[in-house]
Amino acid sequence: MGLEELRALLEAKKKEIREFITNKDADKAEKAMKEKRDLESLIKAAEDLEEDEKRNLESQKKKKAKKTEEVNEFRSIVKSVMGADMTMEERADITTTDNAAVIPKQFVNQLIEIQKGFGSLKGLCDIIPVTKNEGTIPVVDLDQNELLDVLEGEDIVDGTLVTTDVSFKCAKVGLIQSLTSELIEDAEIEMESLVKKNFANIATAKENIKILKVIKDNATEITGATSYEDVEKAIDGSLPSVKAGLITITNVTGYVHLKNKKDLEGRPLNLITEVNGVEYFHGKPIVHVEDTLLPITELKTQVFYLANMNEAVKYCDRKAVTIARSTEAGFKDDTVKIRILERFIPVLGSKRSIKKIEF
To answer: Are 154 and 327 in contact (CB under 8 A)?
Structure first.
């Protein structure tokens, strides 16, 4: 029964009640009043349901419109790269920087998620958005700042923080790839796959190499280590101000050693535990990377770096991932070559927390 039919029944019931009142038939009037209240409840429920359906329909329309807008924006970029004819509206859809089209934000967000799946170290650093390729950023000098005691009756001491201007120059990281597709529809699918998969893998590998270089170049080595217990002691001996954000980075050999370490009776020591998808060693997060990224001294097999990554590495991120027709690859055939780029550079923040242990 529809809403209009329920409303018609309500009006008829009201008329019926008036007749019972006129005839002074209290029992029938009381019974009819109950039926009237039931009808009013049904009408209210039907109205609420109708409103919900309207809101859902509007929401679906907006989502559909947004999806169409997103697809059109990426499609405009594809047409631009392919050298196809474009309307004024399509040209207006494209945001450019450094003579290249900026990939729409939703694709970059998906790219970041995929990078996490590839074991990116970027999220451990202090990410600083920058708007140009090179410049300086102020970094608080933690070794020079001192918080003095304020004695009763004395003036408050000057709390100005000592900062150091750290220079940065964003490196270009990317790939040049040939497109095999001639049709816009096929090229759109092919480009999206290149952005989300091939480029994500390459970008993450380059990010990790540059981040680890900052750590390796600025680590203070703890000598005389013979076992994982020395790593635990180094964690315990870290400054209280850095300990909260301390992270252990190791090679695959070191990770396997900790993961499978057993006592003299062959029982697992469970040195590495997992909580909500994050692995911990001695109460601090631990990550492991390929052995080739953490070279070790001859005759050593395991290496461990301790660092408060948010303090130690300032990751200057230009943010935008761009795509353009390549002018660097040469054109020996008639295929379209595209260049996908991002610009970033990790720089040293403070090296006080960075320690290296080998055994």
So the answer is: no
